[in-house]
Design goal:
Order of helices and strands: HEHEEEE
Organism: Qipengyuania spongiae
Number of strands: 5
Strand content: 35-45%
Protein name: Lipoprotein
Structural class: alpha+beta
Length: about 100
């Protein structure tokens, strides 16, 4: 099988992710209304990592990201659980690239 059909199949499989980079890949989806271009590269990495973590629970909406310590960014948002209830979360992301806290 040549690479061209695989590319087409992969593109079609990812078409459902058009609304966000996380949409179909992580199950619940990601509401990209939060301006992911603002803030530092550290804050953007935190938003991406925390959104991936939260999509385990449902569709995600990020409200805020801010650096609270030298090596920690806190991300706040909400997710709509599979039972259609909205829940808030707070996520801590460390400068070594790890999510070190996730509270609902």
């Amino acid at each position: 099988m040549s690479a061209s059909p695989l590319l087409v199949i992969g593109t079609l499989a990812l078409a459902g992710c058009a609304t966000s980079p996380f949409g179909g890949l992580f199950g619940g989806g990601f509401d990209d209304r939060y301006d992911r271009n603002r803030g530092s590269q550290f804050e953007r990495a935190a938003v991406d990592a925390c959104a991936r973590e939260a999509t385990r629970y449902g569709e995600v909406r990020i409200r805020d990201a801010r650096q609270i310590e030298r090596d920690i960014v806190e991300v706040r948002g909400s997710f709509r659980a599979r039972n259609n209830r909205a829940r808030n979360f707070r996520c801590a992301f460390r400068s070594d690239g790890r999510v070190v806290g996730f509270d609902t």
